[in-house]
Design a protein that fits this description.
Two copies of one chain form a homodimer. By secondary structure, chain A is α/β, with parallel strands linked by helices. Chain A contains nine helices and five strands; from the N terminus they run βαβαβααβααβααα. In chain A, α1 packs across α7 and α7 crosses α8. The longest helix of chain A is centred in the middle third of the chain and has 16 residues. Chain A is globular and about 50 Å long.
């Protein structure tokens, strides 16, 4: 079976992307510990990879500067924003060149294991306005790896695949439900509390997505169970 | 003065690039400890940055796979190749997506310190045929950061600059001589011996460059002095 690298963050978008990738590829998951606010999402990503019966690699990397509110704890996280406004500007949670860095490592990994594709759960509909989640960026990046890698110049370029980029959160959740994605194992909240904060962009987009999909968030009920003991 | 990130490897191309960048920018040097065969080049890069009176940051990163002969010691280094044939194919020393990874970190760093450019001493004339050293790759990568970064979408995109990409090694050395680049501090050899091996691609390209520039390699005479004690 053809191989693909799948970037896994612990959230529901990348988990859904993994199950989509599984239909046609043997996935190798790549998880980044990049100095984000908490390690909880890394642990959730590992559980998701294990549940999918996929091998995974956790890459610990430091970023050269910390000016954003995901890697710099002294910067406040935006809260209670209206989801309809989120895609219109770039918020304080934008981590400079994050996806460019993640994809670079993924492409490097892909070349060493002869993987044909790199899957990323980027979304440009119900999202926080990050430029490295847009179709235009991925088109340009695909061109760069076509020109700048051995596989690319040998006409076997690794392709970055973004299967959910144009879906709404509700559509992603409906796709995931059909594929039996274990959403109870996913973690979306930017904070690493006992249960999701419910106020950050990521929590708000998730809550709205489940509501519009007409489905209860299984992770929310699991958190409550955990809290009750 | 405008800021720029300069990628520094310890070799003569990146040292020359640093002195070129210094003419118009305040450089911040970025050095990578990525699991290459030896740490000697990292130490040389630090000395070069210090000699240029520039701040530097050493980033230690692991690469996800090691299939090349620069990061995998069990893979033999190509030796005694004819320099005129080197650019015609991709050798075993090709490290998958190396420059893509380095540039991604450099762009991230640039965004956090408001640097306008990233300088890289890539060369596509007297080189080993690496695809991530070619003008086509840099054009495509510039487009990717224009589309995928905050600075890019705000029309202040960071630009990857490759001032020596179309120069021969002899031309680079002549430029560097005029700029008083301390070539005695540079290290090009892929091995980390007491003195350069004289057989790897990097040694051969360097020797030919100095010969064609009609100049004695000051690092070679320094190695001999060191050897004599």
């Amino acid at each position: 079976m053809k191989r693909a690298i799948v970037l896994l963050s612990g959230g529901l978008d990348s988990a859904t992307t993994l199950w989509i990738a599984k239909k046609h590829y043997k996935p190798l998951c790549l998880i980044f510990d990049y100095g984000q606010r908490h390690k909880k999402e890394v642990n959730h990503a590992k559980k998701i990879a294990a549940e999918a019966k996929c091998v995974y690699k956790v890459m610990k990397i430091g970023l050269p500067g910390k000016t954003d509110s995901l890697t710099n704890l002294s910067k406040p996280l935006p809260v209670n924003r209206l989801t309809k406004n989120m895609g219109k500007s770039i918020p304080a949670t934008y981590v400079p060149a994050r996806n460019i860095i993640f994809l670079s490592f993924a492409v490097s990994y892909a070349e060493t294991v002869n993987a044909e594709a790199v899957f990323i759960g980027a979304n440009a509909v119900d999202f926080s306005g990050y430029p490295d989640c847009t179709p235009g960026f991925f088109r340009a990046f695909n061109r760069a790896i076509e020109k700048g890698t051995k596989s690319g110049v040998n006409s076997k370029s690794i392709i970055i695949k973004t299967p959910i980029i144009n879906k709404t959160k509700a559509e992603i959740i409906r796709i995931g439900r059909k594929l039996k994605v274990p959403y109870e194992l996913t973690w979306s909240c930017y904070r690493g509390g006992v249960k999701p904060c419910g106020k950050c962009d990521s929590c708000l987009l998730r809550a709205e997505g489940f509501k519009k999909a007409g489905m209860k968030d299984p992770a929310a009920s699991r958190s409550q169970r955990t809290e009750r003991g």
